[in-house]
Structure formats: C-alpha cells, structure tokens
C-alpha cells in the first residue's frame, strides 16, 4: 500500500490534499482545493472514514482555510473514494455539491434501493454471468455491499462553469469510467483535473452494469472520451492532476496508451470467442489479469467480469461478436457470446 504523501501547494491557489483510503491498495485519493475570490472549492471529498475526514480537515487547515469556509465541492464521479465525505462536509459547512446529471441519476437509483435489494441485484448478475455455485454461495454469505453516496445538490453539465468566482473552471464530460464522469479544465491555470479518467500508470476500470445489459457502450464512450481530452486546447502542455498516483503532462500520449491497451484487450477477447460460444464467466476466467484468476477474491472477480462485459459490448457494437442465449440456472436464459465473421454472421 503506497504511503500517503503530504499536502502540497501546487501554486496559483491550487493545493493537493491526499485523503487516505484505509485498507485499500490504492492508498489514497487526491482531493484538490482551489481558492477563489469568495471562498475555496474542493474537487472530490475522499473516502468516508474517520481517518480520511481528519486528513481532509487537516489538509484544508494547511491551506489557510477551515471546513466551514468551503464554498462547494465538485464531484468528478459517484464512486465512494470521491464522494464518501459529502455528508460530513454538509454537516460542517454550507457547501454545495455538484455532479454530472448522469451520475446523479445513478446515486438516486442506489439511494432508492435497500441494501438487500442492492445485494440481490449483484447476486442475480453473477448468476446470469455463469459464475459457479460456490462463488454465488460465498457472495450470499458475505455480500459486502457499500452504502450509496449522498445525492449531490447541483447539476454540472458538460461545458458548464463551476461556481468559483475569480477562476475559469469548466466541466468536461468524459463518460466511461462512470456514465457521468467529469474532468475539470482550469483554463486560466493550464490545469486538467482528470479524476479517474486518465491516470499516469494504471488503466482506469470501465465496467458494464448490469453485467448482461445489451444497452449502452461504456467502453466505447470511454475511448471517445480519451480522444476528447486529447483534443483540448494545448492538451500536450496541460498539467494533469489525477485522483491517484502522480501528476503528469502529455495527455494525448497517455490517452493513446490507454486506448491501445483496450484495443489489445478487445482482440484477446475476440480470439477467445473463436473457440466457440462462451458465457461471461468463461471469457473472464480465461483472460490474463494482473493477479491470477484463482487467487482473486470474489468482488475482484465481479469487477473483472464487469470490465469484460464492457469489452464484449463494444465488440457487439463493432459487429465482431454476437449475443445468444442457452438454458441457464432456473428459468432464466444464460447469455453467451460468439465471434462474428466478416460477413456479419456468427462464426
């Protein structure tokens, strides 16, 4: 687990505030504070934990501010390491919170469901993905479903200006990692807050939810979003401030590397389908991963399956794979995927 770095003054009224994620291999999330003429604004808030909250409070203090002076918080996306402290921020300030409408819709849907309903939904997905009975039994014994984030106050649409008087901070919609993921372009400072969209070394997770959904194309959206940030004015000169790892320059080059990784993965999956119809579990369990499939914990397998599902969906959109069904457990048909010949017919 990486060490949590110190608070840092990046310059021009921008600070990085590393907020720890206890027990998580990511180690921490970078929360950023930007000063304005009428009070500071945060980019994200961090994980919901006492240690995380204490780090955020101390970080804000080192910038010369207190929590009650925070004007607002822009949330790059709904994941808990970015939104977990929204509730505590509201308790200690009058700060607004803003997010893209697509991710607000996700938080509202999660908030409307009970913990049991959320756990049942994941179990149903694992079943339809073809996961073996022992994995389903293990999940039902310990579902470990995270609480949903607090629903933000304000909608921040693509291209909108953040309420930060004295600065020109604008939202850049970059769907893929989540439906409403936002990057933030500080045009008057030459900075790009990339959230989890572009990271300097690791490749952000892109998943399909539900796993068997025939709708949407999150990976396709993600690849188009990589191209979009590569075309921002002066993109190769922008200083990128990601939520994890280290800041960097060269957005187009890094976006190209991330895109190439996913194109290689698409080719690997298409090749596996050449062996015959396969369930999502069949494909996912046969792919190479950073950690061997046999050593993965169940929730890591679920994340891997969601990523594989997103790649299969893109292959469908590109007419390189087709979805079929066969008898499955109970009465539900089990989705399978097959390779498609150049003629557009299943191989």
TrEMBL record:
Signal peptide: none annotated. It comes from the Bacteria. Transmembrane segments: none annotated. GO terms for molecular function: hydrolase activity. Residues 28-244 form the Metallo-beta-lactamase domain. SMART domains: Lactamase_B. InterPro entries: Metallo-B-lactamas, RibonucZ/Hydroxyglut_hydro, Sec-metab_biosynth-thioest, WH-like_DNA-bd_sf. Residues 319-347 are annotated as: Disordered. Keywords: Hydrolase. It holds the Pfam family Lactamase_B. PANTHER family: ENDORIBONUCLEASE LACTB2, METALLO-BETA-LACTAMASE SUPERFAMILY POTEIN. This is Glyoxylase-like metal-dependent hydrolase (Beta-lactamase superfamily II). It comes from Nocardiopsis aegyptia.
């Amino acid at each position: 687990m990486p060490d949590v770095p110190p608070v840092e003054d990046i310059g021009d009224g921008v600070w990085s505030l590393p907020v720890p994620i206890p027990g998580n291999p990511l180690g921490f999330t970078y929360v950023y504070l930007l000063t304005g003429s009428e009070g500071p604004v945060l980019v994200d808030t961090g994980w919901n934990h006492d240690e995380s909250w204490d780090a955020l409070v101390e970080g804000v203090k080192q910038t010369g501010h207190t929590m009650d002076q925070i004007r607002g918080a822009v949330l790059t996306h709904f994941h808990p390491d970015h939104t977990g402290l929204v509730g505590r921020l509201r308790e200690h300030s009058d700060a607004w919170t803003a997010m893209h409408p697509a991710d607000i819709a996700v938080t509202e849907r999660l908030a409307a469901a009970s913990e049991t309903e959320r756990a049942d939904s994941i179990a149903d997905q694992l079943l339809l993905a073809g996961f073996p009975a022992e994995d389903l039994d293990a999940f039902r014994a310990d579902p470990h479903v995270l609480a949903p984030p607090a629903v933000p106050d304000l909608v921040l649409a693509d291209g909108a200006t953040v309420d930060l008087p004295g600065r020109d901070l604008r939202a850049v919609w970059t769907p893929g990692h989540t439906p409403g993921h936002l990057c933030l372009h500080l045009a008057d400072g030459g900075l790009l807050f990339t959230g989890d969209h572009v990271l300097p070394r690791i490749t952000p997770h892109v998943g399909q939810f539900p796993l068997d959904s025939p709708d949407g194309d999150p990976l396709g959206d993600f690849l188009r979003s990589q191209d979009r940030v590569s075309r921002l004015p002066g993109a190769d000169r922008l200083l990128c401030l990601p939520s994890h790892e280290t800041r960097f320059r060269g957005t187009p080059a890094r976006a190209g590397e991330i895109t190439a990784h996913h194109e290689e993965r698409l080719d690997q999956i298409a090749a596996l389908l050449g062996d015959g119809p396969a369930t999502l579990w069949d494909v996912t369990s046969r792919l190479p991963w950073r950690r061997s499939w046999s050593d993965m914990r169940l929730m890591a397998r679920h994340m891997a399956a969601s990523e594989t599902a997103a790649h299969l969906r893109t292959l469908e959109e590109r007419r390189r794979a087709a979805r079929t069904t066969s008898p499955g457990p109970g009465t539900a048909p089990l989705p399978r995927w097959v390779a498609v010949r150049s003629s557009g017919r299943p191989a």
